[in-house]
């Protein structure tokens, strides 16, 4: 059974951390509607959605991906690079404890889950303002990650995500194309963040030209509106942590 761990959009989302985007008004009610549609799509694609408690005191808490990295055998609970986000990991760890042995990134290391990318059997980590060298050193004790440098965006998975076990979609302005790849449309620089579930890609509906490129490459795509969440530097991978519940195998 595939479980998707999510968390509701907090009413304080407008106060989220921002690094590469200018702050603009966020329609929190619309963001909550978009998130609910996203959860419904996850269920349609075969996930059991497990919702964590609403945390109004944590403006970025809807972006649960940054709190954990899940492998086939363990879950690494991160230490987010933004100090305001470190309390987010407690609920995520408690939920994942049911499915995986837990390991933890400790101070002074920092790792955001959005900087960790799996492509088939290979793992990559991006060095960033949120993921430091000490965090990478600790992460390597648990996962054989390869370090990737990138630029111009918040997380590695803002620049590149997997579209199958061998291929990625990427923005070549932000990351060097070291994988077999599809390139985003030049007018849609944020379109490289897609969520792969089996052979289906969940992709932001705001990027139709990139979706067309993926379709021409033979990929199946389900667009989802995430425009309000994007104002908080969130993408479609950010809003869930997916874990296979092996007790149902």
Query: How many alpha or pi helices?
Result: 6
Chain oligomer state: single chain
Strand composition percent: 15-25%
Which strand order does the major sheet show?
Answer: 2-1-15
User: Low-confidence parts, pLDDT < 50 over ≥5 residues?
Assistant: none
Q: What helical percentage do the residues reach?
A: 10-25%
**How many beta strands in the DSSP annotation?**
15
Query: What is the 3D form?
Result: globular
The overall pLDDT average reads 97
Radius of gyration: 16 Å
Task: Measure the end-to-end span.
Answer: 7 Å
Order of helical and strand elements? EHEEEHEEEHEHEEEEEHEHE
Largest sheet: 3 strands, mixed
Instruction: Determine the structural class based on helices, strands and strand pairing.
Output: alpha/beta
Topology:
Elements: E1 2-6, H1 28-44, E2 47-51, E3 68-70, E4 74-77, H2 89-96, E5 101-104, E6 116-119, E7 122-127, H3 133-139, E8 145-149, H4 156-159, E9 160-162, E10 168-170, E11 181-183, E12 195-197, E13 200-204, H5 208-216, E14 220-224, H6 227-230, E15 241-244
Parallel strand pairs: 1-2, 4-5, 7-8, 10-11, 13-14
Antiparallel strand pairs: 1-15, 3-4, 6-7, 9-10, 12-13
In short:
With 249 residues, the protein is of the alpha/beta class. It contains six helices and 15 strands. The mean pLDDT is 97.
Give an account of the 3D structure:
It contains 6 helices and 15 strands. By secondary structure, it is of the alpha/beta class. Strands 2-1-15 form a 3-stranded mixed beta sheet, sandwiched between helices. A 3-stranded mixed beta sheet has the order 3-4-5, with helices on one face. Strand 1, helix 1 (28-44) and strand 2 (47-51) form a beta-alpha-beta unit. It is globular. The relative contact order is 0.18.
């Amino acid at each position: 059974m595939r479980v998707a761990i999510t968390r509701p959009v907090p009413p304080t989302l407008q106060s989220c951390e921002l690094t590469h985007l200018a702050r603009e008004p966020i329609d929190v009610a619309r963001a909550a509607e978009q998130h609910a549609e996203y959860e419904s799509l996850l269920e349609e694609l075969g996930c059991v959605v497990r919702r964590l408690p609403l945390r109004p005191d944590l403006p970025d808490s809807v972006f649960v991906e940054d709190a954990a990295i899940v492998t086939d055998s363990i879950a690494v609970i991160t230490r987010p690079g933004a100090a305001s986000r470190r309390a987010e990991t407690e609920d995520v760890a408690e939920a994942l404890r049911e499915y995986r042995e837990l390991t933890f990134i400790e101070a002074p290391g920092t790792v955001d889950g959005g900087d960790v990318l799996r492509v088939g059997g290979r793992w990559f980590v991006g060095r960033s303002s949120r993921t430091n060298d000490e965090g990478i050193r600790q992460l390597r004790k648990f996962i054989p990650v390869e370090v990737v440098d990138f630029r111009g965006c918040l997380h590695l998975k803002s620049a590149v995500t997997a579209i199958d076990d061998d291929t990625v979609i990427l923005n070549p302005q932000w990351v060097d194309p070291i994988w077999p790849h599809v390139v985003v449309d030049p007018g849609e620089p944020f379109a490289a963040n897609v969520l792969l579930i089996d052979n289906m890609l969940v992709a932001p509906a705001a990027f139709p030209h990139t979706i067309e490129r993926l379709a021409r490459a033979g990929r199946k795509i389900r667009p989802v509106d995430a425009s309000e969440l994007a104002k908080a530097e969130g993408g479609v991978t950010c809003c869930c942590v997916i874990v296979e519940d092996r007790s149902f195998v």
